[in-house]
Backbone:
């Protein structure tokens, strides 16, 4: 269970932190929220889509797993299996959270508590002058940029919803011979037919908000579903080398499963 701690100069003036070792923290994460700014980097590697949050709003996501035990982009050594890691995962063990009692949009910097340490060979959080260490300050700047991008991307999702071009995605993944395909529910895609029927003024509004780029990016990315088969085979081979048994059962969910999305 992830436990986040708000960082303060008073409480953590003499604290140190340890960086992540690989991507074990994301090994069971099936989707990750992604940004419009990442589209060109995402499309060559990930199938993207939409999920609904508890409020019924859509979130733009990259699909990382099929509802089974693990993220199919993290190998058994907790290394990432493609050249581009989504931005939302790169700043760990740091993250931003809403500041309690503050005005909407005001954020505080947090760290996953397990990465705090008193070991002096680790990295300081604050320097001797009470300012964030340069590495932490750089991560905070990156997180702030991601937060702005997330606001823009969520606005684009809202625009696509308003335009009526998001529809359920009947996603089915081949599991090999003598097995029924894996069906994944609770995921959505762009309805290309509905998109093509929009009038010019609506399309112009979607273009200005970045939503049109998101829509076409999602459609183009769907071909990357094929990467699941490649990653499944690689993980099965790695598992076979580990325990002398070839098993991919845990990589899939049940015959019909939902994708887990654990937001901060």
Residues:
């Amino acid at each position: 269970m992830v436990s986040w701690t708000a960082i303060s100069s008073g409480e953590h003036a003499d604290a140190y932190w340890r960086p992540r070792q690989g991507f074990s923290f994301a090994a069971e994460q099936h989707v990750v929220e992604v940004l419009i700014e990442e589209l060109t980097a995402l499309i060559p590697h990930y199938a993207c889509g939409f999920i609904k949050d508890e409020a019924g709003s859509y979130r733009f996501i990259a699909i990382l797993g099929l509802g089974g035990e693990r993220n199919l982009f993290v190998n058994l050594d907790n290394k990432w299996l493609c050249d581009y890691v989504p931005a939302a995962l790169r700043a760990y063990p740091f993250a931003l959270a809403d500041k309690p009692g503050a005005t909407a949009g005001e954020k505080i910097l947090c760290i996953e508590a397990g990465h705090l340490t008193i070991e002096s060979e680790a990295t300081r959080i604050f320097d001797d002058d009470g300012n964030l260490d340069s590495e932490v300050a750089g991560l905070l700047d990156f997180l702030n940029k991601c937060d702005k991008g997330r606001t823009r991307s969520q606005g684009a999702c809202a625009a696509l919803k308003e335009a009526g071009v998001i529809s359920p995605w009947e996603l089915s993944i081949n599991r090999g011979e003598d097995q029924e395909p894996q069906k994944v529910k609770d995921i959505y895609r762009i309805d290309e037919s509905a998109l093509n029927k929009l009038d010019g003024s609506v399309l112009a509004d979607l273009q200005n908000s970045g939503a049109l780029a998101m829509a076409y990016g999602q459609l183009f990315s769907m071909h990357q579903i094929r990467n699941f088969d490649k990653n499944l085979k690689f993980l099965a081979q790695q598992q076979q080398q580990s325990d002398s048994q070839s098993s991919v059962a845990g990589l899939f969910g049940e015959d019909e499963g939902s994708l887990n999305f654990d937001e901060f």
